[in-house]
Specification:
single chain; 128 residues; alpha+beta; Muramoyl-pentapeptide Carboxypeptidase, domain 2; four-stranded antiparallel sheet; 36% helix; 14% strand; globular; binds zinc ion; M15 family metallopeptidase; peptidase activity; Zn_M74/Hedgehog-like
Length: 128
């Protein structure tokens, strides 16, 4: 069976993202029960300040600015869904890979403030 592949725009959005995070997201897609894409990787400071101003991000010091974070969108049945269960399923695969590959990942779906199931980042401890 042909498995999921990142679209051209998802590939473009991985440009400038830390290679270890790219490895995780590519392997996650290969194993994921649900298709997904990359909506954003590297982000410039200006856009980050705009997101903070809109209340969509809580920090000026986002991991996106340094290429240590990605946001995804789930594509069950070829249509975007924001239902948390899909992001949970993808996160489960990411955490398995994180253990196997010893690449420590944090998931926004576990955050208490501004819970964000779309967001994955390399741990600040291992990737300062
Ligand atoms: Zn994010």
């Amino acid at each position: 069976m042909e498995h999921f592949k990142f679209s051209k725009s998802s590939e473009d959005n991985l440009k400038g993202v830390h290679p270890d995070l790219c490895i995780i997201m590519r392997k996650a897609l290969a194993l994921s029960p649900v298709d997904f894409g990359i909506s954003e990787g590297l982000r410039n400071k200006k856009r980050q300040l705009e997101l903070v101003a809109k209340g969509r991000s809580l920090t000026n010091n986002s991991r996106h600015i340094t290429g240590h974070a990605v946001d995804i969108f789930a594509l069950p049945n070829n249509a975007i869904s924001w239902e948390f269960k899909y992001y949970q399923a993808i996160a489960n695969i990411v955490f398995e890979l994180s253990k196997t590959l010893s690449i420590e990942i944090e998931w926004g779906g576990k955050w208490d403030d501004l819970n964000d199931g779309t967001h994955f980042e390399l741990s600040r401890k291992d990737y300062p």
